[in-house]
């Protein structure tokens, strides 16, 4: 058989106006084909917000971060309750008891929290927590710095055991972390023994439950804390009212309603970033767009690529708006996307940086929260 010249074969995608051309060639010899296909960018998919990462001392188990999907699985791998002051079993049990689905457990029996945090960097975790972090020098600050640097996860911090409402301490000022008070009483499964433990695992489970049932844009507040049977400190309304403006969230007892998670404030003093759901929504949007536009790495840094990125991002934000995560009566009121010479300098373009400027309405129409997504192309 004689070789034939390559022919351009149109392949129509699901989008009527989009045609991808594949260059195909007949066999040079039996069983050998040469085919070059141009791959169009796919739709952006929302990243998961439901995986937590917990660090702490365990009775046994591997030192590498390990994914578990139930408290029973945790017990098989890491053991159960053990010494006084070792809170990780209660954390994991509280997480799954309040709606948690998946968590990485990182055993830190050698005290090397810095090394444990480094191990967690590459993992797909959106919530991070170490019980009683403020009692370990520098740990709470390290958790916050970890989240601020990676920008893809949020830290839960608990108050220090024994604090009264007037003496609750904050480990820093950040929109990537939230502080909760007071500690809670739980009953050990099997023994029924009453134990005072930090509440972070329970709170993380409520985060996940809220994300699944309502969406990451909804505040994880006014929710029943399952498994909690009492509080270290039962506050009055005026005491709780003084904590919330400081960015300190509470667990409160309400007659007939039980123990409820009350408040969804971050540790940030910036009024634009004071809500947990706002920061976590922005993490979700930024990470989804970053992952969904990674294809530009292999594209030329030109007007055609910018237009594709803009269109792909707008399609994702349109679906986000339609799902109720963004405010606004129209797409124009809900978001904007810019990717052109107004968002990049000539130096950016020369060095292969594509920068997308995005604004989303998360509070009310016409008021936008602005963020940037940057990608680097190989050319």
In short:
The protein is α/β, with parallel strands linked by helices and 379 residues long.
Number of helices: 10
Shape: globular
Mean pLDDT: 89
Given the helix and strand composition, which structural class is it? alpha/beta
Q: How many domains make up the 3D coordinates?
A: 3
Q: Assembly state here? A: single chain
Please name the CATH topology of the largest domain.
Rossmann fold
The major beta sheet can be summarized as: 9 strands, mixed
Q: State the CATH architecture of the largest domain.
A: 3-Layer(aba) Sandwich
- Counting DSSP E segments of at least 2 residues, the number of strands comes to 18
The helix/strand order is EEEEEHHEHEHEEEEHEEHEEHHHEHEE
Q: For this structure, what is the CATH class of the largest domain?
A: Alpha Beta
Q: CA-to-CA gap between the ends? A: 39 Å
Strand content: 15-25%
How are the strands of the biggest sheet laid out side by side? 5-6-4-7-8-9-14-15-12
């Amino acid at each position: 058989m004689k070789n034939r010249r390559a022919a351009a074969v149109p392949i129509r995608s699901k989008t009527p106006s989009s045609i991808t051309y594949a260059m195909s060639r007949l066999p040079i010899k039996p069983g050998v084909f040469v085919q070059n296909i141009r791959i169009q960018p796919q739709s952006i998919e929302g990243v998961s917000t439901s995986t937590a990462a917990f660090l702490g001392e365990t009775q046994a188990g591997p030192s590498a971060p390990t994914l578990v999907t139930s408290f029973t699985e945790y017990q098989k791998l890491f053991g159960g309750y053990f010494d006084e002051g070792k809170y990780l079993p209660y954390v994991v049990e509280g997480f799954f008891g309040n709606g948690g689905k998946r968590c990485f457990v990182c055993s830190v029996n050698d005290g090397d929290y810095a090394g444990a945090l480094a191990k967690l960097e590459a993992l797909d975790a959106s919530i991070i927590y170490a019980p009683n972090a403020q009692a370990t020098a520098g740990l709470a600050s390290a958790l916050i710095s970890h989240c601020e640097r990676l920008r893809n996860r949020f830290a839960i911090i608990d108050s220090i055991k024994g604090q009264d409402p007037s003496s609750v301490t904050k480990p820093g000022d950040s929109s990537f972390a939230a502080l909760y008070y007071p500690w809670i009483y739980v009953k050990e499964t099997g023994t029924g023994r009453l134990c005072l433990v930090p509440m972070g695992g329970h709170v993380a489970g409520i985060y996940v439950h809220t994300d699944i049932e309502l969406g990451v844009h909804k505040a994880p507040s006014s929710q029943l804390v399952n498994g909690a049977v009492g509080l270290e400190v039962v506050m009055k309304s005026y005491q709780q009212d003084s904590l919330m403006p400081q960015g300190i969230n509470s667990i409160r007892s309400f007659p007939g309603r039980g123990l409820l998670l009350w408040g969804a404030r971050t540790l940030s003093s910036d009024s634009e970033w004071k809500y947990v759901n706002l920061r976590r929504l922005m993490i979700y949007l930024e990470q989804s767009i970053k992952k969904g536009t990674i294809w530009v790495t292999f594209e030329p840094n030109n007007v055609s690529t910018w237009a594709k990125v803009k269109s792909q991002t707008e399609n994702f934000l349109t679906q986000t708006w339609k799902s109720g995560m963004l405010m606004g009566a129209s797409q124009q009121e809900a978001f904007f996307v810019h990717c052109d010479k107004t968002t990049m300098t000539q130096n950016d373009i020369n060095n292969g940086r594509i920068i997308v400027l995005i604004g989303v309405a998360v509070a009310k129409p016409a008021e936008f929260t602005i963020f940037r997504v940057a990608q680097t192309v190989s050319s």
